[in-house]
Amino acid sequence: MIERRNIDKVHVSNDEEQEGVDILSSYINDPDFADYDFLCAGLIGLMLALRDMVRTTLTWIFYNLAQNPDIVATIRNELLPIALQKAPTGAGAMVIFEPEEIKSLVYLRATLYETLRLYPPAPLERKTVATEDIMPSGHKVHAGDTVFFSIYSMGRMRGVWGEDCLDYNPHRWLSKDGNTLRYVPSHKFLSFNSGPRICPGKDIAVMQMKIIIATVLWNFDVEVLEGQSIRPKSSCILQMENGLIVKLKKRQA
């Protein structure tokens, strides 16, 4: 892909524009960047991370939504004005939502963030200390030290999220009037990492999940079958140990 893109770049004259902008072109067109081995590794990591993180998060969000029909109803009410404007394509046809249509839906995003708070797909993070420093907690760290922190635990700490930290409550992400998202610093909500290491695929992943959640909830009722053992799997990704078995029923919106 990199070699082909470099060839295409040579064939484009100065007064012509290449169609589309993507992460690969951004690096190749940067005159200060030439480490293609690093770029290749980064692109593969990005693709794998998106696949695993999105899949894992969607499992947890549909599990939580099945336990909270009031939240499902609120999301459907938020989707209603958009769905009413979409022309039906036939009896029983599904309503498919487009990225631009749901971009501004704040309650849907708040529900997604609440799932990521309690069930972060990467539950454990590690950092290597570059230079000696004193952390906000007062602990002294030295160059070369490795610091581990549990994002899963942080999402369930009263000192970070308040007395209702164990409650599944999307409203904690909303402003008082409910029309906008409340600002939450990335060092408090670490599901997408923080600072210069923040996930480059965050916006893509969020949009993918919002589209899937909106489309499934509008077209189907999701019922989690009883008798399942729902618990996280001990791994670098917070998968559901035994997966999730659900029953989908086509709804009449």
Note the main attributes of this structure.
253 residues; mainly alpha; two-stranded antiparallel ribbon; two-stranded antiparallel sheet; 9 helices; globular; oxidoreductase
Give structural notes.
The protein is mainly alpha-helical and 253 residues long. Helix content is 42%, strand content 9%. The chain has nine helices and six strands. The protein has helices at 2-11, 23-28, 36-66, 69-85, 99-102, 106-118, 151-154, 158-161, 202-219; strands at residues 124-128, 133-134, 140-141, 146-150, 220-224, 246-250. The strands form three sheets. It has a two-stranded antiparallel ribbon with strand order 1-4. The chain has a two-stranded antiparallel sheet with strand order 2-3. A hairpin with a 5-residue loop joins β2 (133-134) and β3 (140-141). α3 (36-66) crosses α6 and α3 packs parallel to α9 (202-219). It is globular and about 60 Å long. The termini are far apart. The relative contact order is 0.15. The model is unreliable at 11-20 (pLDDT under 50).
